[in-house]
Design goal:
With about 290 residues, the chain is mainly α. It is built from 15 helices and no strands. The protein has one domain. The longest helix has 24 residues.
Length: about 290
């Protein structure tokens, strides 16, 4: 009870930052799981839509019962926009990773905070402060530095889908921010259902064998279902660009998991740029929390 009371006493800045940080920590092993699974692209997209949809829908029905559908209806236009952006972002990310270097995809996603700041300033009239602009600029430059050598090795189709992913993240976060009083988690659940339905038109096989029998469900719950709920809630408390800043932690921590498990050595640029990203986000978050 004391922990629940202490959570309620947190400021909006503290709540939003905590939710975003926890979400990204769950996401960081995602690229490792995708690498380890090695299954066909659309099968992966299907399971990353279907399993989170069923898990979160079950939990939502337990919590809200039939009010789940009422909440979904009340989300209105914001809900429809979020369903669309959420579905497109989820599909674009997986197809991008499968059609270009992971590095290229992550560099494109590094543009999400900047895009969020621009969209937020234009649609919500929330002009980011100087500290946030500096953090966005520094982390983006660091991300490009990390993957500079690999930028020329990607496939243009995969790269463009990486950009679509970044734009989808930005649009989704701004949509949530503009509907702070609405619960858009049910809309995200529907978005996951659409991801699975869309993938069904292209799936070659639904068969999971050997370690994929547990690896794929684990990935879908830990790296997809839990984070998407937290990321859907976080922008209700802090600006969209600040939520997306936390996504850049995956730039350094994701390759670390790959190195730890399959011994794929991170480059010197990854370590140097990653330290800059982590320090920048830590300092930015500290200053924001101090002001709150």
């Amino acid at each position: 009870m004391e922990r629940i009371k202490s959570l309620k006493n947190l400021s909006d800045q503290q709540k939003g930052s905590l939710l975003a940080f926890i979400a990204i920590m769950f996401i960081t092993p995602d690229s490792l799981f995708i690498r380890l699974s090695g299954i066909e692209t659309w099968s992966l997209v299907f399971y990353r839509g279907a399993i989170p949809f069923l898990v979160v829908l079950f939990i939502m029905l337990l919590i809200y019962k039939l009010n789940f559908f009422k909440i979904l209806k009340l989300s209105g236009l914001h809900g429809l926009i979020y369903i669309s952006t959420f579905a497109v972002t989820n599909i674009a990310f997986v197809v991008s990773v499968q059609n270009t270097n992971v590095a290229n995809t992550l560099v494109m996603i590094a543009m999400a905070p900047m895009l969020s700041a621009i969209l937020g300033a234009f649609f919500l009239k929330e002009m980011p402060d100087k500290k946030t602009w500096i953090a966005i600029a520094v982390t983006f430059i660091a991300a490009v530095y990390i993957f500079y050598d690999s930028l020329q090795l990607g496939n243009i189709f995969g790269d463009m889908l990486g950009l679509v992913t970044a734009l989808g993240l930005a649009m989704g976060a701004v949509t949530i921010r503009s509907a702070k009083k609405k619960n858009l988690v049910p809309a995200a659940v529907v978005g996951k259902m659409l991801v699975a339905i869309f993938a069904m038109f292209f799936v070659e096989t639904y068969l999971l064998v050997e370690r994929n029998l547990w690896l794929v469900p684990l990935m879908c719950i830990m790296c997809v279902a839990i984070p998407f709920v937290l990321v859907t809630i976080a922008p209700r408390f802090i600006p969209a660009e600040e939520v997306n800043l936390f996504f850049l932690l995956e730039t350094i921590i994701g390759p670390f998991w790959v190195w730890l498990v399959i011994k794929e050595q991170p480059s010197l640029e990854t370590l140097q740029g990653g330290i800059i990203i982590i320090l920048t986000i830590a300092i930015h978050s500290f200053l924001k929390l101090k002001n709150s």
